[in-house]
UniProtKB/TrEMBL annotation:
Residues 127-518 form the Glycosyl hydrolase family 13 catalytic domain. One of its GO terms (biological process) is carbohydrate metabolic process. This is Neopullulanase 1. It comes from Raoultella terrigena. Keywords: Glycosidase, Hydrolase. Pfam families: Alpha-amylase (PF00128). NCBIfam families: PRK10785.1. Gene3D superfamilies: Glycosidases (3.20.20.80). One of its GO terms (molecular function) is neopullulanase activity. The lineage of its organism: Bacteria, Pseudomonadati, Pseudomonadota, Gammaproteobacteria, Enterobacterales. Its EC number is 3.2.1.135. The keyword Hydrolase applies. The gene is tvaI.
Length: 533
């Protein structure tokens, strides 16, 4: 039986004096007579010779070596192997042997040089929904100001921390969590082994989730305002923690001054064809604004407008750049529904604008981390200069759901075994460079899904296995707030419960499991960095 081994890590690849040496190990009863290396130079396919090494790396294993000239071509080096006999050929890729040449994204890939942020792969992230994590006392003036939430058609509801969350709790229900509350809990997070925070949106917006932005340049007073974010930034830096913000650049809220549906006097685009922001949105002939998925309170931004582009990312003091500069010095952006961003009310020229956002971030802070939200296949956005990484729903979360929770993203039944789960994960990551695999953002759940514990139902004993998988699989592990103490809940709003700070309400066994894996995190990260076969 023919076998082959290769991963884009040492000892199979070695960079030396402007050349990349690539080695394939082969064993079996009938070895190939020749092996060639399929590579690319500026998107043109090349067939490069490989020579057989005299020394066997292992008994019964033959090594073939070829090389790629790094002086030309693009940074992402794609390659595969063609094994030849007198009467046949086989191709070898990350997914094994094939009888025909692989597609471009099915080959091995390595980034030389790697332009992504080098710090990311060593992190343990923690996602925080600010209103539901921790509430600081005493309260500041304006934090608990009542107001009418137009999109919900009601006044906001302010609850005590220990009040239960009900099915009626939508975007108007607040528990008072804030940024100073997060600062106060940094010792807890540090003890948990967390080294980086990703915050759901913190900018001024009327809803509790803040995805309906009203002002991109001010932190919401409900969360403590600009001063509270600055305190959190200083505190995380003191603790050696990274801090990522959520960028909602596909749409605004309809109360933003650029749009001004509720006519607060800004001269917004909604009611004025002469508004300076009119071309920042797309309107039908009847005057209706295009919105995100039909939600009228979330009008889509139109990136045909040069002035909008300058405001969001291209200008020297654009929103993207502003929060990466001192005194804020944020470590990057998570980009909300970024695959839908574009021109003319749709996603036209999407990749161009995402690359522009990333370029602006890198020009401002070279080691900034830019990753996108993608429930579907994100690999299209991970091939050029668009994104450093993506929320790895398709390549991690959903395979694990199918294996351990027997459900899919639509919450339809899906029962797969461990072999199928790993094959699914391997198939997905095969289209990424090895360095990019190590930066993929792995989660068991998030603010947009049911809690993994609830998905497991009566099979909750499988949860520790999922924790092990989270920390051991290639990529960056991220804990959704409260998962570590057993917070449960189905879809929104139940997946956004207040954090139970009373130890009597916490799952001490699960927390112990997380802490146990924290203690060997460095070793497991090294395993993930080395590759998985």
């Amino acid at each position: 039986m023919l076998k082959a081994w290769h991963l884009p890590v040492a000892p199979f690849i070695k960079e030396q004096q402007g050349r990349l040496f690539i080695t394939l190990w082969v064993s079996g009863d009938e070895l190939p007579q020749r092996v060639t290396l399929r590579a690319e130079e500026d998107n043109e396919e090349l067939s490069l010779p490989m020579h057989r090494l005299r020394q066997e790396p292992r008994p019964g294993v033959v090594a073939w070596r070829g090389e790629i000239n790094l002086a030309s071509g693009q940074p992402r080096r794609r390659y595969s192997f063609k094994l030849l006999w007198a009467d046949r050929q086989r191709w070898f890729t990350p997914q094994g042997f094939h009888r025909f040449p692989p597609a471009r994204l099915e080959q091995f890939a390595v980034d030389l040089p790697d332009s992504g942020p080098q710090w990311v792969a060593d992190q343990v992230f923690y996602q925080i929904f600010p209103d539901r994590f921790a509430r600081s006392e005493p309260r500041q003036a304006g934090q608990d100001r009542p107001y009418h939430h137009h999109a919900a058609g009601q006044d906001i509801v302010q609850k005590q921390w220990d009040e239960p969350l009900t099915g009626e709790a939508g975007g108007s229900t607040f528990y008072g969590g804030d940024l100073d509350g997060i600062s106060e809990k940094l010792p807890y997070l540090k003890q948990l082994g967390v080294t980086a925070l990703y915050l759901n949106p913190v900018f001024v917006a009327p809803s509790v989730h803040k995805y309906d932005t009203e002002d991109y340049r001010r932190v919401d007073p409900q969360f403590g305002g600009d001063a509270a974010l600055l305190r959190l930034r200083h505190n995380t830096q003191r603790e050696g923690m990274r801090l990522i913000l959520d960028g909602v650049f596909n749409h605004t809220g309809d109360s933003h001054v650029w749009f001004d549906r509720h006519q607060r006097g800004s001269g917004g685009a909604c009611h004025s064809a002469d508004s300076p922001w009119r071309d920042w949105f797309t309107f039908s002939p009847e005057g209706e604004a295009h919105s995100w998925l039909g939600y009228a309170s979330l009008p889509k931004l139109d990136y045909r407008s040069t002035s909008l582009i300058n405001e969001i990312y291209a200008g020297e003091d654009s929103i993207v750049r502003h929060w990466l500069k001192a005194p804020w010095s944020m470590d990057g952006w998570r980009l909300d529904v970024v695959h839908m961003l574009g021109e003319g009310g749709g996603a036209r020229n999407n990749l161009r604008h995402i690359a522009g956002i990333t370029q602006a971030a890198k020009e401002t802070q070279p080691e900034s981390f830019v990753f996108g939200e993608h429930f579907g296949d994100a690999r299209q956005w991970l091939q050029a200069d668009a994104e450093d990484s993506a929320m790895n729903y398709r390549g991690f979360t959903f395979p694990l759901w199918g294996f351990l929770a027997n459900t899919d993203i639509s919450y339809d039944p899906q029962k797969i075994d461990a072999q199928t789960c790993v094959a699914w994960m391997d198939n997905y990551r095969a289209g990424l460079s090895h360095q990019q695999q190590l930066r993929m953002f792995n989660q068991l759940d998030s603010h947009d899904t049911a809690r993994f514990k609830s998905l497991l139902g009566k099979d909750v004993a499988r949860l520790p296995l999922a924790v092990v998988w989270l920390f051991c699989w290639p990529g960056v592990p991220c804990i959704y707030y409260g998962d570590e103490v057993g917070v449960d809940g189905n879809n929104d709003p139940f997946c956004r419960k207040p954090f139970p700070w009373d130890p009597a309400l916490q799952d001490a066994t699960l927390l112990g499991c997380i802490n146990a894996w924290r203690s060997c995190a460095r070793r497991t990260r090294r395993c993930a960095t080395a590759g998985v076969r």
